[in-house]
Amino acid sequence: MTDWSHAARRAIQEAHSALPETATLAERQAAVDAAYPFGMRAYAPYKAWLKARRGYLCRYGYVPKGTALVESPMERMMRRGGER
After folding, report:
1. Checking CA distances to 66, which of 27, 54, 55, 57 falls within 20 to 30 Å?
2. Range of the domain at 40
């Protein structure tokens, strides 16, 4: 893990510890985004930040853009059941 990753995770952990347990996903996103520890949002530091941010927020229901939610065969069968 790089120094950028450590710094990003540390900043996110500090933001997390300041949040109540009942915080919504939107509140968590706002707190994490406000805790950005680096200067310009570019290059390796920003990539490390985005990876740490995604890892943290996914634990609370965040679905990254471009992530296709794959339908299981059972879900597909149930959805198509009423189409006959």
Report:
1. 27
2. 1-84
| Separation of alpha carbons 64 and 66, rounded Å | 6
Helix/strand/coil (H/E/C) assignment for every residue in the chain: CCHHHHHHHHHHHHHHHCCCCCCCHHHHHHHHHHCCCCCCCCHHHHHHHHHHHHHHHHCCCCCCCCCCCCCCHHHHHHHHHHHC
pLDDT for position 13: 97
**With the C-alpha atoms ordered 51, 36, 14, 23, is the resulting torsion angle positive or negative?**
negative
Q: How many domains does the chain have?
A: 1
